[in-house]
Amino acid sequence: MKMTDLVSFKLGSPQFRIKETLAKEAPLYQMYSQLDLEEDLAGVVSDHQENKQVKTLDDVSTLKTNDLVFSLISGKAALVSPEHAGYLYTQNYLILEPDERLDDKFLLYLLNEDKGIARQLWLGLQGSMVLKYTVKQIKDLKLPKLPSLSKQAAIGQVYLKQKHLQAVKKRQADNELTLQLAKLEEVLKNG
């Protein structure tokens, strides 16, 4: 079964067509980035760099909480967190809306972890000068045989919990390293 049989697609706003303005009544949008996607996938939001902002009166594509967003740059997908709801997304991102036969968290798992899908994506990049996925490539992905919806939901939940746990453990390890390095520096100073 192809993705197009179960999923509808919304491409983000073409960035080069957005007309910026200084008009007071124009809304100011944060632009969704690859780092935002990684945070959404990990379920951990950090206080990182400021996102690029754009002020425009144009009708632009914005994200909602739990949108399934796919990066055409990295080939990774995530569910949008409440922290990134309302962010403007560009043509580098695609929103995937699965129908009732496909659990969104299971689709997330497939896109990020399924070896068959990874192989299809990789083969689609062969011979390409720019390593960027195309909308056609995503639409043409062949999905494996799907388990029952309840199994899909269970797999998707476990996957998200594991990604979150992995991110928390990494943050803890990074913090421990920082602490130990500070202690070593103190030992060197005191001599």
From TrEMBL:
Keyword DNA repair: no
GO MF term set: DNA binding; endonuclease activity
Keywords: DNA-binding, Endonuclease, Hydrolase, Nuclease, Restriction system
Parts forming coiled coils: none
Gene3D superfamilies per UniProt: DNA methylase specificity domains
Keyword Transcription regulation: no
Any GO BP annotation: DNA restriction-modification system
Protein name, UniProt field: Restriction endonuclease subunit M
